[in-house]
Design brief:
flat; 81 residues; 79% helix; single chain; mainly alpha; 3 helices
Amino acid sequence: MDDKNLMENILLLEKGVCDLYMHGSIESSTQNVHQTFKTALNDSLCMQDTIYDKMAAKGWYPTEQVEQSKIDTVKQKFSMQ
């Protein structure tokens, strides 16, 4: 397994952890448990962001520029609703 695949796997796992912590926070029955999940979620989101930044810097997570006309079309569509 090369570094890119390893980082992709770590990023996917971290996203899954974020999802679990979010649901734990939503479903927690006491303030103490809620705060613990919320703190863990925030830490995991920061870690996910760091992983993404490292992947993007190496060109392993490419993004595309969207044409302004497409953005305007979507904005107009949802502003009418």
